[in-house]
UniProtKB/TrEMBL annotation:
Pfam families, per database record: Phage_integrase
Annotated keywords: DNA recombination
One Gene Ontology term from the biological process aspect of the record: DNA integration
Species of origin: Streptomyces aurantiogriseus
Residue ranges constituting the Tyr recombinase domain according to the UniProt record: 1-61
The protein, known as: Tyr recombinase domain-containing protein
Domain of life: Bacteria
Region of interest called Disordered, as start-end residue ranges on this chain: 59-112
InterPro entries in the record: DNA_brk_join_enz (IPR011010), Integrase-like_cat_sf (IPR013762), Integrase_catalytic (IPR002104)
Bias kind Basic and acidic residues: ranges: 72-97
Gene Ontology MF terms in the entry: DNA binding
Amino acid sequence: MELSGLPPIRLHDTRHLSATPALLGKADIKVVQERLGHSSRQITSDTYTSFLPQLMTAEAESTSAVVPRSPQKKETPPREARRKPEPEAEEGSGERPEADEDGPNEGLRPAA
């Protein structure tokens, strides 16, 4: 070890070397807890999720995968794009076109 320049590995470090890949491989936390001799799942979870944020991400993704999604709506064009173009009055007729039924003056007719 001295020649490699690496820090020494303690016996306790091998526990982490066992638990980390198991949890990253989606092993049941109860199995890892029992293997390590922790008194509760909470201790195992607190120990490993604090320095393995990808465990939290993986858990969130697996949970969201089972949540039903609402069907995707078709994109509708903006209201302005859906409006019918207003008919133009003939030049010199003096008449205004009828109001667009979908417009703000819905149902109104020009006065005679």
